[in-house]
Amino acid sequence: MIKSKRDRGRILTATGLKKLIEAIQEWSDRYNIRGTLTEVEAESGVGSDTVSKIRQGREGADLSKIRQLFAAFDLTLANGDHRSAKLDDAEDADEPKNLPTTEETVALAGRSVKIFISYHNAEPDRELGQKLEIALSAIGHTVFTTENSIKLGDNWFDRINYFLKECDYLLLLLPPTVSQSELLTYQVQQAKELQDSRADKKPVILPIRVGFPLSAPLNHDLRGYLYRIKQREWQTTADTPIIIA
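and the corresponding structure tokens:
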């Protein structure tokens, strides 16, 4: 059967991506491995480029490959786990979407908003995240973090989804590529899906690279999600007052 030029395949929903990430994480922990693209390819028989495409969700993938990847980790692909990539056609437009403008950044200081600060639980990311939380809370904003807003026994994904749905801004502290996890990618994908479903395009994503220069490439998945979104850079503690301001 010849596919239409507009047939762009299938992409995972947030629910489907959550299932896949959890299964890969459990498999990685069981065998004490990192769960790299090469390792996932060896386990599933799905090429690493296709695995990356499926996890990134910016391009449609063949449904049979998605099923194969799910089956490799003892998952059953449900109808609610995937959708047509045609729904992303609007992203092909030339104009950037959800680019944090100066006005949006300044708005943090002018009115009370809800902010989810996502950071890697290692230094210097953790220290910067805590200082941002203190500074933003002190001027009246509601701040969520995984460190202080998730209790022992809470479902991590449920709480993350709640924070993203509630927040006006996702303040994303990006670690170097080697530390960019599947869970970080999940947060960004979920935020993008929420933006696409809302007239106000929230949460607005505000990425800050921590010890990770703007000239260095993001990992393959995040590169697609954060394309055309302005990013700031933090290199040393001398930059902290500038970021907070």
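(Above: one complete record from the training split.) The beta strands are 10-12, 82-84, 114-118, 142-145, 169-174, 204-210, 232-234.
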